[in-house]
Write a structure and sequence with these properties.
By secondary structure, the protein is an alpha/beta fold. Helices cover 37% and strands 21% of the residues. Helix 9 crosses helix 12 (355-368).
Amino acid sequence: MRIFISSLITGFEPQRAAARRAVTTLRHEPIMAEDFGAQPNSPQIACLQGLRGSDMVVLVLGEDYGFVPPGSTLSATHQEYREARETRPVLAFVQQGISPGPEQAAFIAEVQAWEGGLFRGGFVNPDDLQDGVVRALHDVTLANATGPVDEREMMASAIGMFAPENRNQVTAAMLELAVVGGPRQRILRPAEMEAAQLAEQLEQSALYGDSRLFDRSLGVSSGLDGSDLVLRQDRGASIRLTEQGSVALRLPLDETRGARGYDPMSGMVVIEESVKEKIGTGLSYAANVLERIDPTQRLTHLALALRISGAEHRGWRTRAQHVANSTSVQMGHSGMRERQPISSIVRRAALGLDRGALIEDLLVPLRRQYPASN
């Protein structure tokens, strides 16, 4: 692989040399500004062109932010990072025990918050950095040493995680989201699936994490269903995790309280904002689960399947529309037609980089399946 090494140059020579040694140790080709020689373009453009010709970027951040070129608000390294994260994997390493200024601190925080990065580690000295880069590149090589991605099989597996609906029984409206990774392979061993620690971590995140799925006032039961680990709550919320790293979520959609307290009519419509919030929370939770069970990203692609169950006769409203006319609901006559799951194949990084667009791409076609209820 051609690996671009991005960092401050002046004063950072030992760290860059260490990154070069790590890359060449594994017989990859380092792409570095020091090797460009005389060029007709500015150093900034030369570096960006070198980055664009690479397969991966090793980003090394220290205390100083670096020079900001005329006409820009970002340092050269910051510009390289912004461009690289949209197009290729980034392995980021941050020096420990430093006191960065405001600009560099904000840059480091941006990198550490980026969910699409393959690896984020710290280092103390050049030798420590070299070891970290070697390990990270080795992990990436192993992660990519897998079979081809079969998108049709992935999509079938994602849709297959939905249980058949009983259309003769009235049930609560549920958002169901399935995330299936590829290439297909076993990510968790049976002993790992049985370990109490895994269920506890999933439960803790579902109750108290940033992507909270469960109601804290309700209990949680967990156990194996065949080879799958399943966590359940009353009112139908559940999490299912398979040995292949697939995640299926069921999340209640009904809003029982409006601006004036209990709202009996809310069960007659699907509230758009509630659906959007649940999609975002579900994707975020699934991303966190994948990061925990597959940190080296052996699963490079994801099949997403989404549907709403238990809402055959409902219309679709925004919250504002419902608050303005909460005492009456015009039911849709097309509610009993078969609604196919919304599906999409994405690269795994999209769960972090493009989550906002991804939520919209799932929400809009889902909304089209329901009649507007004004």
